[in-house]
Known about the structure:
Elements: H1 3-11, H2 29-34, H3 38-68, H4 73-80, H5 84-103
Helix pairs in contact: 4-5
Amino acid sequence: MSRSRRRLAKGIKPRPNYRMRASAAPPTPAERIARLSPVEVLERINRTKLQREELDAQLALLIDHAVALGVSWPQIARRLGVTRQAARQQYHRHHRDAEQAHAG
């Protein structure tokens, strides 16, 4: 390295710990939501509602299939994190509502 380059290099101070700096943690879901505009929040509410409805329908189909396969209500209830009675009541209510929607 030439003298002039060495002199220039001596005057340059490296940033402290610029290579050692830890990457920032990704934002939490609450932090991401807090950054949304009112229009974005309403769109997300709508999209999430539709996703929930799709997942509820899928869950009902899975429960119906599990019952048809002979899976017991206590086993289903354990997977849902509820009591056997709560699982049956929820499933039958949902199933009854779906039948009424198809009949009407």
